[in-house]
Amino acid sequence: MQLPYPCAHSFPLVLAPMAGVSEAPFRQICRRMGADVVLSEFLSSEAIRRRIRTTLEGAEFEPVERPIGIQIYGSDPNAMAEAAALITEHYSPEFIDINFGCPVKKVVQRNGGSGCLRDLDLVAQIIRSVVGATHLPVTVKTRSGWNDQTRDPVAIALRMQDAGARAFTLHARTRTQMFSGKADWDEIARVVEALDIPVIGNGDVEAAADIVRMREHTRCAGVMIGRGVFGNPWLFRDAQALLAGHPAPAPPSARERFSVALEHARLAIRLQGDARRTVLEFRKHLGWYTRGLHGSSALRQRLFQIESIGEAEAIFLEYLEPIAQVA
Ligand SMILES: Cc1cc2nc3c(=O)[nH]c(=O)nc-3n(C[C@H](O)[C@H](O)[C@H](O)COP(=O)(O)O)c2cc1C
Predict the structure, then answer these.
(1) pTM of this structure
(2) How much distance in Å is there from the Cα of 13 to the middle of ligand 1?
(3) β-pair type (13-15, 168-174)
(4) Domain ranges (residues) in the chain
(5) What are the tens digits of pLDDT across the range 201-220?
(6) Does the active-site annotation cover 116?
(7) Is the Cβ atom of 236 under 6 angstroms away from ligand 1?
């Protein structure tokens, strides 16, 4: 089943919205590696409505990132409508996604994110308000329910579809589970069965082969990948190869990993400014890019102390020196 916006493959691979990770630099790297669709991290509708600069910066993207969705959250249907209208007018993404999944306490206390799942009438009202405020397709991303007692992804999904959602992404865990346990792919299959709109499966994809498994297991219209691509955007490349019936390419060498890490870092400097903050926030990506390499814990210890990208480059060169001598 087709998504409500154009994208390159009939079975799309979607980079998950992830606060502090799926920002423009990483989105661009993932698009280049084979992600078909990307999303912004979740943005507060109240902050958008009040035109808070740092929040609006989160809605910025470059043309190479398209197709892109901007994700908004909030429990006030009016604020959500206003935010959707502003995003449509000023940023014109391919679609607007509503976050009904965020489990973070600060967010759910005000009924944002998965907090809304305790009141499905409110959920329907929010979706209708957003749909009425934009000509763009409105999609939703949610969890399987608030807790085990109220876990009912099919009922939630049907309400969201009835309210006007054009695609549905399920992270098949409840709010109270946070990230514990396993995502229940059987639930994704049941929702696929029940809905007329495309369903994107999400949860616990760690390797390219998991994407093929999820597709077979659930018959979903596409797969969204989050934590599995931390430091490993090659997962998109490998999955596209498997989906096209080819073997997965060889894993990236240390040199390739460093080269993409530095490309990512330079994008971050260009897009987010050459500030100390950009570098400090980038340290986590360096940790992820070097995971599993020979001597990676010593390497990470050094990378976690860098104050400039030049320092990371020097550390990488030093690491590669003995390899270069053997080669
Ligand atoms: C660091 C981090 C930040 C996240 N931020 C968001 C977010 O802004 N919006 C959202 O809908 N989900 C967010 N999520 C949830 C992911 O989009 C995804 O649903 C979840 O990680 C499960 O997928 P995975 O098993 O492939 O990681 C976040 C997850 C992580 C780990």
Answers:
(1) 0.97
(2) 15
(3) unpaired
(4) 13-243, 254-326
(5) 999 999 999 999 999 999 99
(6) no
(7) no
